[in-house]
């Protein structure tokens, strides 16, 4: 569907034997090591979503100024200006949370897992919502390849699934409230 600039392929290992001296970390700790690596990965995906969403927002603002309907630019329609403002606010709020989660990860703060999960879900939902709104604001052109909005939409859709789905992010955050 998307992510065509970085094709994803399966890596299948069958009957592979690794010498014991090549073991990384402690035996039985592989899952926990892999999970730790995901915190930074989640921030990466969140940042990619904000970047795609920001581009979709900027394309939308430019299009509203350019497109003439009923004797003036679409930018004169207040309902559409409100929509642009909502898109901007959703991205800015997600950006603040992402920065907070990145600081927590740098500081190895006790709530870093919870904050990274929150930032991943909030930012990837924000990027997707903004990309979807950008298509709507471009009308029929938004659905065509020419304006680039449909590509952003297809690419950002994956971010709600990979690096742990957004349902799993909610599970992590919800459980953190119940674990204490
Ligand atoms: C473009 C792309 C690139 C990818 N790149 C990589 C990569 O580089 N490396 C890699 O290892 N993987 C990669 N993946 C795989 C990705 O991480 C998984 O697809 C993702 O983690 C979801 O796992 P799953 O597909 O097995 O879904 P499933 O676990 O089968 O989940 C299916 C649905 O059920 C929901 N669900 C599952 N369990 C629960 C639960 N306990 N509570 C509530 N809802 C639940 C999920 O949220 C989802 O909506 C990539 C996927 C995509 C689409």
Description:
The protein has 180 residues and is mostly helical. It has a single domain (46-178), classed as Butyryl-CoA Dehydrogenase, subunit A, domain 3. The protein is 67% helix and 2% strand. It has helices at 30-66, 78-106, 112-137, 140-143, 149-159, 166-178; strands at residues 68-69, 72-73. The longest helix is centred in the N-terminal third of the chain and has 37 residues, at 30-66. The radius of gyration is 20 Å and the shape is elongated. The mean pLDDT is 96. Bound molecules: flavin-adenine dinucleotide (FAD). Residues 3, 8, 158, 161-162, 164-165, 167-168, 171 line the site of flavin-adenine dinucleotide. Flavin-adenine dinucleotide binds at residues 3, 8, 158, 161-162, 164-165, 167-168, 171.
Question: Secondary-structure map with pairings?
Answer:
Layout: H1 30-66, E1 68-69, E2 72-73, H2 78-106, H3 112-137, H4 140-143, H5 149-159, H6 166-178
Antiparallel strand pairs: 1-2
The site of flavin-adenine dinucleotide has 10 residues, from helix 6.
